[in-house]
User: Which sequence fits this backbone?
């Protein structure tokens, strides 16, 4: 079996997240996601005894879960100890320390997009869940920061003779749905939200990314500093293409939502082909056309 490609420098990710906490983290995106995740969990008609908050960079999601009254115990699992939760486990999202069938709920907010082996992580989560246990996660989607990606590509092409990877290749929704199925989740659901944030300048956007701990951690990133001429051209391109009438610049964030259940015999099952008791043609009030027959004019 071949090893999964190492796309992200996860040691650098930890250092960037530590720097973000020292700078004073920009948490508006994470706060929004945590609130939405709490709302989504609220419509699930059951209680959860033991939950793990996997990789979420702050304690905001754990607090939302505890305030919801739907979860008895929340364990924080992150690569570094930056939680005020006494129930904390130092854990890499790629190597989970939980036994099979030991958890009722796994949640994660804006962390799994930086996992090198996302299929493997999803398999580990599914195994750690009890039968009928739930995974509910949000991660950065593939259309995020499309404006910055496009402006960087042209600016570098013009000034540095080539394009280096600057924005992570986040997964799209179809890929995520397939990964949930491959990992063995039942009733998988994938959807997305889009958030447009407006900035005074590209520098302000890049500062927010720095304070999110979300700057470039790609292994194939260019190691040399960004040239002043490239940065200036980046500013010009971004302002030309992605500015509103008032001069403020748009930046798009796509939030991809994943949910899936550990299989259980009492869960809903799809009907077998041919088991329907009513014809679709009758329900639509139309005539069924046999295979090979052409529609009448």
Assistant:
């Amino acid at each position: 079996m071949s090893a999964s490609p190492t796309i992200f420098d996860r040691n650098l990710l930890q250092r960037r997240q530590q720097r973000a906490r020292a700078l004073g983290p920009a948490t508006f995106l994470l706060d929004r996601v945590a609130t939405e995740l709490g709302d989504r969990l609220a419509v699930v008609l059951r209680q959860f005894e033991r939950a793990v908050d996997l990789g979420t960079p702050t304690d905001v999601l754990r607090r939302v879960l505890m305030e919801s009254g739907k979860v008895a115990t929340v364990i924080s699992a992150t690569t570094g100890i930056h939680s005020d939760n006494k129930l904390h486990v130092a854990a890499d999202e790629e190597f989970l320390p939980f036994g099979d069938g030991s958890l009722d709920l796994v949640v994660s907010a804006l962390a799994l997009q930086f996992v090198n082996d996302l299929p493997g992580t999803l398999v580990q989560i599914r195994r750690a869940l009890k039968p009928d246990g739930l995974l509910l996660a949000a991660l950065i989607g593939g259309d995020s920061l499309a404006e910055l990606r496009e402006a960087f590509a042209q600016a570098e092409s013009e000034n540095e003779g080539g394009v280096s990877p600057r924005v992570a290749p986040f997964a799209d929704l179809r890929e995520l749905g397939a990964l949930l199925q491959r990992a063995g989740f039942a009733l998988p659901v994938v959807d997305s939200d889009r958030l447009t944030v407006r900035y005074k300048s590209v520098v302000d956007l890049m500062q927010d990314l720095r304070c999110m701990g979300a700057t470039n951690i790609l292994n194939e990133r260019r190691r040399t500093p960004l040239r002043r001429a490239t940065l200036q051209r980046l500013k010009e391109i971004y302002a030309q293409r992605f500015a509103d009438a008032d001069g403020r610049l748009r930046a798009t964030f796509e939030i991809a939502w994943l949910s899936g259940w550990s299989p259980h015999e009492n869960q809903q099952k799809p009907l077998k082909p041919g088991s329907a008791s009513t014809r679709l043609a009758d329900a639509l009030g139309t005539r069924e056309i046999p295979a090979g027959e052409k529609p009448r004019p």
